[in-house]
Structure formats: structure tokens, C-alpha cells
Amino acid sequence: MYLYLVAIAWIYVVLLMSMTEVSLIAGVMTFLLYCVFPLGIILYVMATPMRRRRRQAQEKSLRTTTLANEVDPTKANDEST
Q: Which residues cross the membrane (predicted)?
């Protein structure tokens, strides 16, 4: 939650910085080099634990559904006789 709040505040600060640049190209470069690239990397790294937990939860649910759908081998042999 706070991660996104800090990111929005940083975007605002860098946007104001880029608006004070002398030329349009300097403003765009300031915004890209101080905001977009570093913020993208930081958000990706900081979201890694969340992605890992989501992936583990999906794997766990997949394992439980496959285990529930499998046929018990002892019951399968009893039914065939």
C-alpha cells in the first residue's frame, strides 16, 4: 500500500522537476531517467515477494485439485475384481 503512495509522490516530484527544465527534450529525459526507469526497477524488485506468494498459492491449489481428482489405487484394484 505504502509502496504505491511513495511511487505516486515520486512521480509528482519528478514531473515538477522535468517541467522546470529548459527544453522539452531535457524535460522528457529527466522524467525518463529519474522516474520511469528507476521506479520501474524498484517496483519490480519490491513486488517480488508478492509474486512469489501468488505463484506458491497457485501451485498449492493445483496440487490439491490434482490430488483430489486422482483415483486411489487400492480402491481401483478392489472394484476390478
A: 24-46
